[in-house]
Amino acid sequence: MAYSEHIPGCGAERSLGHLTPPWPSVRRRRPARLVLAWLAALAALAVLGWAPSAHAQNECVRCHASLSEKRLRSAADAWRQSVHGKDGIGCFGCHGGDPADPTVRAHLAENFKPHPTRQEIPLVCGGCHQDARYIRRFNASLPVDQLTLWQISGHGVGLARADSSAAVCTDCHGIHDILGQAEPTSPVNDRMVPQTCGKCHSDAAAMSGTKLPTDQASGWKRSAHAKALAAGVPGAPACNGCHGGHGELAQTAGTIGRVCRPCHKAEAQEVERSPHKTAFARLGFSDCVPCHGAHDVAAAAGALLVSVSQGGACARCHTKDEKPQATAKQLQGMLDDAARTGDEARRAANEAGARGMSVPGLESALAELRTAEHRLGPAVHALDPSLLEPEVTAVKEAAGVVTKAVAQVEDARKTERLGYYAATGLLALLFGLLVWKSVRVARRRPA
Amino acid sequence: MTQPMNPQPPLPTVLEPVGEPAGGTAPTRRDVMDYAIGVVAATAAVAAAYPAVRFLSPVPTGKGGPVTLRLADVPKGTVTLATAGERSVLVVHNDEGAVRAFSATCPHLGCGLRWDEDERLIRCGCHGGRFGMDGRVVSGPPPRALTELTVDMVGDKVVVT
Amino acid sequence: MATRAPTAQPRARGASGSWLGDRTGWTVGAARLATHRIGPWEVERYAAVAAAVLMLLLVASGIALSMHYRPNATEARGSVVEIASAIPFGNLVRGVHQWASDLLVACMWALCLALCLRRLYRRPGELVWLAALFGLLLVTQIAFTGAVLPWTASARDQARMVGGMARSVPLIGEGLGHFVLGGPDVGAATLPRAYGFHIAVLPAIFTLVAVAYWRLAARMSEGLAERRTAAGVALPRTIPVYPDFALRAVAVSVAVVLVVVSLATFLPRVPGITGGEVETPPWYLAFFHQILRKSPPDLLGIPGPQFIGGVMTAILLVVAALPFIDPRGSKVTRWLALVGLAGIAALTVYGLQ
Predict the structure, then answer these.
(1) Nearest by CB to A429, which of B33, B34, B40?
(2) Which pLDDT belongs to residue A415?
(3) Based on the structure, what is the number of domains in chain B?
(4) Residues of chain B with pLDDT under 50
(5) Whether residues B78 and B142 fall in one domain
(6) Residue B91's domain spans which residues?
(7) Which residues in chain C show pLDDT less than 70?
(8) B62 lies in a domain?
(9) Which residues does residue B139 pair with via DSSP β-bridges, in sequence order?
(10) Interface contact C270-A358, CB threshold 8 A
(11) Fewer CB atoms inside 10 A, N or C side of chain C?
């Protein structure tokens, strides 16, 4: 709090005075003069050659935006587009100074901070962002624990250890151009996070002072998570999904399982029943990583169980044991079997739909099939064919319901077709007889 | 009716009703053809009736599953009307504590039945049939007693099938 | 009645020559029909026969559908889906209704075109022409109100568009729109209204028009024959109405039923089943949609739709007044009719793409 105390914008009295027009007293006491004052101000603005805007009262921005030196101008331009600019939180909040003073004397204010140091930045941001009462005025759903979390994170601890390259707020969020997380171009948007983290973590030079690897971002790009995120699956994790947004921690064997669990609940439950449970604990392995990988986590879909020769996950450890490999093969066979049955049922349903047939109850039958298929993935984690068997049976039964419904309609259709041929045969015969008779009637009479 | 405009005399041969052979004489080729046309047309009409009847006949709506209710909902000495889907049953909890169930359809003409607490009888609103708690006819036109259904007690649940 | 009964008794036999004729006073008129001779291939007669058969098919299949259809905004779509999926032969009945309706519209176009090209709108056929034209309009409206009944989003949009056109009529527009939609906009009141128009009001008017057409056309045919006799000209080849034309008419009827059932079986078009499908406007309105689509928003200072609506109404009035504008049946009329038809056909094809 030591730093934020001399930043008036985040002190005890945060009147947002710097956000309101600089003539509040005039407006209240002398309405007639207020008009004159406004007219004078407008005239002055016109003379100065700039139109009044939402930020007209911020003298810092007004002046900096008109400067020709790009270094001094770009901050003002970027700020206007930022979330702070849109909420009217001006330069003063971070830099101090006197925003009401239109002259260069504004820089002479005692509290003016042109360049907060890397050590100061977290405190500048945190000064406002950990104040729930203040933050709620702008965004009631924004958390206020970022500073605390950051302080315990690898980045915060690093900075405390005087490693000045450790990331602070601005390294990830940007400086003047800070955007809300929901903005697609924000560096902390889910889709941008891997790139933002990768900026340092994929750079061998930047990581040289640490023992960290640099292949996490490239691994993640190959992962099932990356595909899911690209496909717009809600909750699909980028870096922050597992490592946390501000309290980044390197995940260790003991913690990884806990990170996966909240999303992969059903799988985690089955893992408890698997023979790996005790073995992994004894060997000090993580629950999930040995099979699925870490950053390059693979889509399960059978690929992990394929045999040694195909580079399946089991083969990484079970190089010689024949029994686990046989089990893997058996499980894979069962999964393939279930997938084939399900696909066949769906194909039959699609074909029926393409031929314009409407099958009663098809929607719910297909939904049942999908539900049954969703249970296969978790069930295989027990790595026990006898535990997978009932789920495979459930899929087959659900598929059977679909196929039967389609077949019933097909049969009914066939019967209808037969009836059609019989009826049209009769009608065609009748038509022929009538034509014949009409020709005969005409022919028998002299023209 | 307007007069015929054409002064030509009518041609008697073409005025014979279609499909009726000339009296007494052997059927000619034309008569046979007329018969054939009549038979085919009649068959076609009958055939068309099949889809029409199937389309208009009520859609079969299954028999309905079992009706389940809690025993607590059927106080001793009362009758409760319970429904599941389109199926209605009367669940009787008689004074001796036995639970029985009857179809809630009147055996007279199929009207719905309900329990009359004042008379302590099952009544049909249509023609005034009355039945006792044992399902037997007390008065009115119903020709026979109510159809009894199977009751299973599963825990505190009454399952009527 | 009471006074006629005793007098009818003595002449009960032989007066009309038939059992039914004696009792009802209706004469079969076979003798009259047998003496009346007509040209062998007068297209408008076959079009009229086909239209009558299609109307009977529509009434029969429509009555059947009305037994399962529930005309209220909440249940309409569900009941249509139920007919299509759960009810035996539901798709067949829907298909027959749909295809018969399309063919009826086509038939009425053919009928009007035949009357125009064969110059039958001339004296004494003026009222026949008007009846046929009115019949075409009615059939289009019946088909259109029917298309609203599945109550899908696109059906509601179509209804909304018609309401908009009604509202753009000068002076009475507001009231007319209200009358068509049952309220200021498409809502729950629109569907029962469309249903009422579709199954009762419009078919009743159409039946009256159709009966009038048959009587007028028969009278016209006799009148033309009279004129030919008076002028001493004869048709190159003729057939008697009974039995020759009657047989052909029955054969045409059978063929129409055959075609409708085949189309319904093999090309089942089931609008209103799938959810958010974008249905194109019905083909018989596609040319009109295409004109509306391509017209500028503003013509001669009048809003586009209103201008086009005005022009279409004017064209319709001119076409209706054809017997009086062109009492002699000039070749120009034929050419205009053919060009107009080709234009409408081209716009229809263009509009459906």
Answers:
(1) B40
(2) 83
(3) 2
(4) 1-23, 61-63
(5) yes
(6) 67-160
(7) 1-17, 26-31, 269-280
(8) no
(9) B130
(10) yes
(11) N
User: For residue C269, what are its two tokens?
Assistant: 């078009």
Q: What is the pLDDT of residue A292?
A: 82
Taking the C-alpha atoms of residue C344 and residue C339, their distance in angstroms, rounded to an integer, is 9
pLDDT 10s digits, A244-284: 888 776 666 566 677 888 888 888 888 888 888 888 888 88
What's the CA gap between C328 and C112, in Å, rounded? 18
Residue spans per domain, chain C: 40-277, 280-353
Same domain, B103 and B144: yes
Expressed as residue numbers, the domain containing A359 is 322-421
Give the closest residue to C150 by CA, choosing from C186, C203, C99, C195: C195
Do residues B38 and B81 both lie within one domain? no
Do B29 and B90 belong to one domain? no
* Burial C130-163, CB ≥16 within 10 A → b, else e: bbbbbbbebbbbbbbbbbbbbbbebbbebbebbb
Asked whether A172 and A187 are in contact (CB, 8 A), the reply is yes
SS3 of residue B26 by DSSP: coil
User: Is A26 within the bounds of a domain?
Assistant: no
Q: Give the integer Cα–Cα distance in Å for C9 and C1.
A: 12
Inspect the interface and report whether the beta carbons of A433 and B51 lie closer than 8 Å.
no
Asked if residues A98 and A109 have their Cβ atoms less than 8 Å apart, the reply is: yes
Residue A355, in any domain of the structure: yes
Q: Which of A19-23, A124-128, C138-142, C158-162 has the lowest mean pLDDT?
A: A19-23
Contacts of B55 in chain C (CB under 8 A): 64, 67, 87-90, 92-93
Structural domains counted in chain A:
1
Classify residue B39: in a domain, yes or no: yes
Q: In the complex, which subunits touch A with 3 or more CB pairs below 8 angstroms?
A: B, C
Distances (CA, A) of A47 to A21, A43, A44, A100, A112: 20, 6, 5, 19, 29
- Residue B111 sits in the same domain as residue B143: yes
DSSP element (H, E) containing A344 = helix A322-354
The CATH number assigned to the domain holding B99 equals 2.102.10.10
Between the two ends of chain B, the Cα-to-Cα distance in Å is: 70
List of residues 6+ apart from C121 with CB closer than 8 A: C115, C128, C129, C322, C323, C326, C329
H-assigned helices in chain C: 4-8, 19-24, 30-35, 43-66, 76-85, 90-117, 126-148, 153-167, 173-181, 190-196, 202-231, 246-266, 283-294, 304-320, 322-325, 331-352
Locus of tokens 């399962």: C68
pLDDT at residue A47 above 80?
no
Are residue B34 and residue B99 in the same domain, yes or no?
no
Inspect the interface and report whether the beta carbons of A426 and B33 lie closer than 8 Å: no
- Integer Cα distance of C186 and C157 in angstroms: 8
Cis peptide bond upstream of A234, omega within 30:
no
CB contact under 8 A, B5 and C229: yes
CB-based contact A426 B44, cutoff 8 Å: yes
Please name which of A116, A54, A105 lies closest in space to residue A84, comparing C-alpha atoms: A54
Residue B87 sits in the same domain as residue B134: yes
Dihedral sign, CA of A35, A37, A40, A42?
negative
Contact at CB, C250 and A434, closer than 8 angstroms? yes
Tokens of A373: 């298929």
The complex's ipTM works out to 0.80
B76/B154 same-domain check: yes
Does the CB of A435 have a partner CB in chain B at under 8 Å? no
Q: Name every residue whose Cβ is closer than 8 Å to that of residue A105 and which is 6 or more positions away in sequence.
A: A98
Q: Tokens at residue B18, please? A: 């279609």
C10, amino acid identity: P
Any chain A CB within 8 A of the CB of B42? Answer: no
Of the partner residues C37, C67, C243, the one whose CB lies closest to the CB of residue B14: C243
Give domain status of residue B3, yes or no: no
Look at residues C298, C316, C315 and name the one whose alpha carbon lies nearest to residue C307: C298
CA distance A444 to chain B (A): 10
